[in-house]
Amino acid sequence: MPRSVRSLHEVRTALTARGQFFETTAVDVDGVHFTSWKNGPSNLVEILLHSREYASREFIVHEGQRLTYREHFDVAATMARRLVEHGVEPGDRVAIAARNLPQGVATWWGALGAGAVVAPLNAWWTSEELAYGLNDSGAKVLVLDEERLARLRKQFNNIKHLRHIVVISDDPAHPADLGKPHDVISLWGYREFLGDVAPDVTLPVVAIDPDDDATIFYTAGTTAKPKGAVATHRNSVVSVMSFTFANECRNLAAGVGDGAPREISLLNIPLFHVTGALAGLVATTAAGGTLVTMRHFDAGRALALIERERVTTVGGVPTIVQQLLAHPDFKKHDLSSVRYVSYGGAPVPEDLPARISSALPRALASNGYGLTETSALVAQISGDEYLAHPASCGTPVPVCEVAIVPESFDGREPTPEVRCATDEAGELWVKGPNVVRGYWHKPQATSQSFSQGWVRTGDIARVDAEGLVYIVDRSKDMIIHRGENVYPSVVEAELTQHPAVAECAVIGLPHGEDGEEVIAVVVLREEGLASVPQLADFLRPRVATFEMPSRFYVRPFALPRNAQLKVLKRELREALSHEAF
Known about the structure:
The chain is of the alpha/beta class. It contains 17 helices and 29 strands.
């Protein structure tokens, strides 16, 4: 693939010029002024309607199932009508708890087409957590797979608002096993609920305002009970436009332009995650690309799928990319179709873009930054710029404003006089029409995190003289040791340079007058490759004295991670408090 022929600044200026598709404009939402995209859809349903133009193109490939855009639209529109027939009204919540299945995708779009709010629930939650999500969202209908049905059944009597459960069969050739009926909640097989799909089916006529609620995505819940971030249609379509803009910048800066291949994406991020839903599902639907999904991620099977389906785009989170590159069968597969390797959502080893460039010379690597609360994308970096600045997550898209303020700042808006200087670390605030309107039924939490169109991200960051953003750490993971701020990602980045270290996590534990003790949890590539003294000797000259862990724990198995593959440091803290390693 050709490398950069135009600077990113030149490309961005050209794309956002007056009269161009990515021209920006001023908007006012409830008295708050934003910069937004001038063009594009006004709501998500317009994207679904537009997808009919791709008709016979393949939309979803999943474990032997193949669905064209026309077939998908017909199923989604039929689902929208069935939901309305079963009492779903505009603003009602429809929950989905399943793997990345074609039926779940059609339900996602069908619920929006009915004017409902989609509440994707974490498919890996326990039965109690699923019941919490259903009660918190007040969902009237739940679509799930058989595995989630078995998990949830014992909670049926504790669920308040749910009236219908629609079950997707694990085997598409056979009806779902519904088990014992319930007195209040109606149980349906997916095919039974959907009924006949007419070839000329249309969506119900529903008026949708850009500022109507569209989705409730629950935060990962690594430190507290999950909160539902409520995104409007405006939030979502702005984010999809931002993804499209970032990808266009990536291509033009690399000299690809109109020669870019139609994207065939291996979707590894769950659709209950905002990046999987918006960057994966919605952006692909808007662009007429193909989604290739798997029952669960396995690096070896993923490599075979990439080769078989001629996948152009892989990624998700850095861990997935690293697993693919490190797999022993990597060189046995024809991966020449891969043009883009995109990821974000977790700290990235600085050598990763160079490793990608070496292993996949035709591919462009991209790293991005965003949150559930920002409807995913805030900033992105790719290509040669990323190779030159591997520690950065990029420049904010034109509709996002960022501000770095001292961590002690408790004001309502980061005015210019309180902001940190260039390259000075502080808490990152983000403003834009992509920032969600708040947390579902949690006014106190909303007021603590959102103000005047801004969201306090909780991330510690800095911005350099070129406007590139660097994430230093999560503020909630920051360790205060003897009055000094210790950022775990700094220590982790150095420790992972040891050739024997497969992965590591640095956490803090209460320790008397010291405040917190710095602890390193390490997983070795092979048992016995390095001792604790060797790890300490390697790290000591690389970090400040106050950053040096006082204890190292060598863990014999992988670090605990959530469905987005982020390390669950809470679990590590709990395990260490009981010496349960």
